[in-house]
From TrEMBL:
GO annotations of cellular component type: plasma membrane
Compartment list: Cell membrane; Membrane
Protein known as: Probable membrane transporter protein
Annotated InterPro entries: TM_pro_TauE-like, TSUP/Inactive_protease-like
Membrane topology: Multi-pass membrane protein
Keyword terms, alphabetized: Cell membrane, Membrane, Transmembrane, Transmembrane helix
Organism: Massilia timonae CCUG 45783
Pfam families attached to this UniProt entry: TauE
Length: 257
């Protein structure tokens, strides 16, 4: 079975390397649907997985100066306390109970569909923002919206392990349309590191991380991400996003049904 996990990690890493999104959106449902891992353990293990892999990405983006640290600070101001409160709530309601596991399963499905919407509408959203510059938030309103967005993402990521990628990036595009694609990616990855780390610590406290599973996933995903990033230039982005959106829609439907 461990080799199967390695291959699953490689496949997810390959797709993440090519598209930049889809890690939690694919890994958590994959563990739940194909391998029968309980929703709570799938979420906890994926959060630890994300914290490690995104740390490497942050180091790269820091050297290329594509991280807007002021925005990262605002997102973390909302996301980190929300993640702690969400972990406490999971502990109170019983993170490993069958009933809450079902709630987490449906939360994963909703998060996956939000990711699909973010993927499909991102370019249209950006075009609308550029066409209506007067609607863009400024000053304190922008700061408050960023903090609130971080809080929403903090809860979503802690409960389902999904949302820090495509949803977070789409919110950044909406709030800060002048950021370059590289700055959106770098800032999105940078704030996700402390968020997924704190959420993972919460799940460690809850006892919902499978460390051997995490290790085998990392063995496959690290070379997968590297090869995916190398292949990204040869494959059209529109095709990749359509493939990812189709896969995630099927995953969400399977989770609900």
């Amino acid at each position: 079975m461990s080799m199967t996990y390695v291959m699953a990690g490689f496949a997810v890493g390959l797709l993440v390397g090519m598209t930049g999104v889809g890690g939690g959106s694919l890994m958590t449902p994959l563990l739940t649907l194909l391998f029968g891992v309980s929703p709570s353990v799938a979420v906890g293990t994926d959060l630890a997985f994300a914290a490690i892999t995104k740390s490497a990405g942050t180091i790269t983006h820091r050297f290329t100066r594509t991280v807007q640290w002021q925005i990262v600070g605002r997102l973390c101001l909302g996301a980190l306390p929300a993640a702690v409160l969400a972990a406490i709530a999971l502990n109170h309601f019983g993170a490993l109970s069958e009933q809450l596991g079902q709630v987490i399963r449906y939360t994963i499905a909703v998060s996956v569909m939000l990711t699909v919407v973010a993927l499909l509408l991102r370019s249209r959203l950006l075009a609308w923002i550029h066409a209506h510059p007067e609607r863009q938030l400024q000053g304190r309103g922008l700061a408050a919206a960023t903090i609130i967005s971080g809080a929403v993402l903090g809860v979503l990521v802690t409960v389902s392990s999904i949302g820090a990628g495509a949803i977070g990036a789409t919110l950044l595009v909406f709030l800060y349309p002048k950021l370059s694609p590289a700055e959106v990616a770098g800032t999105d990855i940078a704030y996700a590191v402390p968020l997924t780390a704190i959420a993972a610590l919460g799940h460690w406290w809850l006892g919902s991380i499978d460390w051997m599973l995490l290790l085998t996933l990392l063995v496959g995903s690290l070379p997968g991400i590297t090869l995916g990033a190398m292949a990204a230039r040869a494959v059209p982005e529109r095709f990749l996003r359509a493939l990812l959106a189709t896969t995630l829609t099927a995953v969400a439907a399977k989770l609900v049904l």
